[in-house]
């Protein structure tokens, strides 16, 4: 015999359990929205909590966080947004969900070119977009981004979707340097050289080189190190390739930042700033370098040996803001040339 | 209550429409020129391909199973629907893993062939045919179950009449059984089409840029909610078109079953090679759609030591999954009872309309519901916090989103059609004479409900609860957008792993979803076999 009252009562009880699951933030907490993999970032949060006694609550997603903050409006629980790319940083600023980070400590530690002049964001680690070249089939040690459109690479390049933010930033940098018409021509050239439809992620680019599908793959610096050191299954993918730091013809390797932003309506603003300051501390920067295989933004922190093995990084001097300004144009060009089709 | 339910279901659609009325800036130039043609073509081809494949597999196996007896049939009866327990996105991850370069198939082939040559012999799963194959093989049970139900009750008279006219077995199948089953097949294929359209995980992962994927990227990459809403409206128009087509296809298909106990046909016993072929035909889809993905997940979970180093977080994800699903199922059950009971006691056009509207959620992709809910849910949240501040409470933050109720509301709206449909069918099978007799002895509505309806509706309710619960466990797009801080469900945690290229680490969570779904799916099959001859 089903009793409606029993049903209603059990629904009420369940609702209560749910509300206990997500206790509203009390003192001593900080709420983080993050695009970084939880696995990579959790050790940092744990260390922060140990240091400060502040509890870190996390929502991790692979897309849509700034849109969600926008929808949440003044009641958004977010204090801090961690992003993986200048594109995401720019999206958040454009969406109007941030406020200036007023912190002398951050201004002192993070070099000016790696933070927003208005303080809307700060870079906390750096990565470069590089070439995973086949050990057997690629003889040259130097390569330029321009060269990727050269017909000599026909059918030999593997890359993930052109709309992915990592590629979007690289293409935006190219657009910023050469203008839209030139960038379109270059993209058509690269597209013509692809061994297959863009798919998968950066790790798969190395895998497809290892499998003989292509000769060069394009990926970020830390993925290669992660495969080499942390993932026995994928170690053979890294072992079949070597990392070449490519440059633009004018010199400089395309770098990108993972960044941190302070939410406009941060309910725990003080703790949010504490977390941001802690992320650029010596300890945290060393963790970024050693555990996540990234280039630290703080001077005097040692680069991990695997990453150092790629050679000396000379970052492209193009201002980050220029990249951000050309993102939409680059995305539009990718659609226009049918890069992903 | 019935009207309120209809309003609840209609809310996200109205919200989407109002969002779509805002200017979307300059996104449409790009969308029309570069995105939409490919997206519409991909979507159309995917729907047509998956529809055709599920029709072929579903109708074929259903006919073999309901008209023949062969060794192993009893076991297959349980196995055939099980691919429903595998979410489409999981099937995509597994088959991509298996057939990717350096995956299991490639390494196996490389035993005989050089690595590069072996690659040439692999089918590309990340392609439209690949997506059709993967999605079709987990969705065919919708068609299979619908087809089997009708093949079983089709009256034997027609077939016997055809036989006396000298028709062979195949002729009877093509000219009699199949046309008579058309309405049921249409319903099955329509469900498959809706599921396919709703999918985002599988198509995105396999590099198919369907309309759903385009809505997602328009919103997220171009930051244009209005543009995404306009695309969503376009998609809703397509869904409406599909439903209209399905209705139109059924318009004169009211084939009269002789109500006098249709004497069910005896199944033809098969032996020798024919029995083997029958077995193989039915076993193959189960193998591809269920056994392979399940084995691969188990292999990954064991191989990666996910069991020995059990991640305690998984318990939390499981708890969240179950709590959201259970709550939504209860809510939906109550709303479904309210609307169907209202319609039973006072069957006027308004209540009929309310009941129909309550069922539209199933046709709305989860992503569209989530987008549509964002605005109203957060408006309620913000209003509540204003009230709370006014009565002097400290800031409670966002109550609906913060507590996960937003996810529950989305599930309720999306899957309400399941309990409404099943309970309505249950009501339809209770003759109106009962109501009359009850009234003559002066029984009020409450008594009728308690003494007559609810006991008779129990199987329908149980079935609805089970199907809906599993649907909620598998749901991805709405969960992804509306979940609160610190909350992952099983499905979102798998998606997180997969979108970062480490799907294998989510193998155990995937197994949990599948395991939770197997029981309910198997339970469903209990009711689908009409006893006849030696079963």
In words, what does this structure look like?
The complex is a heterodimer of chains A (341) and B (535). Chain A is α/β, with parallel strands linked by helices and 341 residues long. Chain A contains 15 helices and 10 strands. Chain A starts with a helix and ends in a 5-residue tail after the last helix. By secondary structure, chain B is mostly helical. In chain B, helix 14 (313-345) packs across helix 19 (417-428). The longest helix of chain B is centred in the N-terminal third of the chain and has 41 residues, at 27-67. Classes of the chains: A alpha/beta (341), B mainly alpha (535). Chains A and B meet through helix 1, strand 2, helix 3, helix 8 and helix 15 of A and helix 2, helix 6, helix 11, helix 14 and helix 16 of B.
Outline of the structure:
The complex is a heterodimer of chains A (341) and B (535). Chain A has 341 residues and is α/β, with parallel strands linked by helices.
The fraction of residues assigned to DSSP E strands of chain B is: under 5%
What is the overall shape of chain A? globular
Helix content estimate of chain B: over 70%
| Structure classification of chain A | alpha/beta
What series of H and E elements makes up the topology of chain A?
Answer: HEHEHEHEHEEHHHEHHEEHHEHHH
State the end-to-end distance of chain B: 45 Å
Tell me which protein chains meet in the greatest interface and how many residues each side has. A-B, 70 and 71 residues
Specify the biggest β-sheet of chain B.
Answer: 2 strands, parallel
Radius of gyration of chain A: 22 Å
Q: Given the helix and strand composition of chain B, which structural class is it?
A: mainly alpha
| Count of distinct strands of chain B | 2
Q: Please tally the helical runs of chain B, counting DSSP H or I stretches of 4 or more residues.
A: 24
Mean pLDDT of chain A: 88
Q: Assign an overall shape of chain B.
A: globular
Q: Compute the CA-based radius of gyration of chain B.
A: 25 Å
Taken in chain order, the helices and strands of chain B follow as: HHEHHHHHHHHHHEHHHHHHHHHHHH
Kindly report the oligomeric state of this protein. Answer: heterodimer
Identify low-pLDDT runs of chain B: 255-262, 530-535
Spans of chain A of 5+ residues with little confidence (pLDDT < 50)? Answer: 19-27
Number of helices of chain A: 15
Mean pLDDT of chain B: 82
